[in-house]
Design brief:
Length: 77
């Protein structure tokens, strides 16, 4: 386990103290859980942006393929 020193805004610290007191949870555990949650959220956002970017890269080619595929029906009639 790593030791970390950080500075928190007073309002964030005070809110955190209220919450951990009500939850009867150690501050360290609460902050670890909060960071775990936030890291997962950010990873999802990063992946979403990457997928959006890559989808745009293949979108034009996909539309060309779809148009070509749809043209096959014209030859069957």
């Amino acid at each position: 386990m790593k030791t970390l020193s950080l500075k928190l805004d007073d309002t964030i610290f005070n809110e955190t103290e209220i919450v951990v007191h009500r939850l009867k949870k150690p501050r360290n555990r609460y902050i670890n859980e909060a960071l775990l949650f936030y890291n997962r959220l950010q990873k999802k956002r990063i992946l979403s942006k990457k997928l959006e970017f890559e989808s745009k890269l293949v979108q034009e080619e996909s539309m060309k393929f779809l148009a070509e595929f749809e043209s096959f029906d014209e030859y069957d009639n």
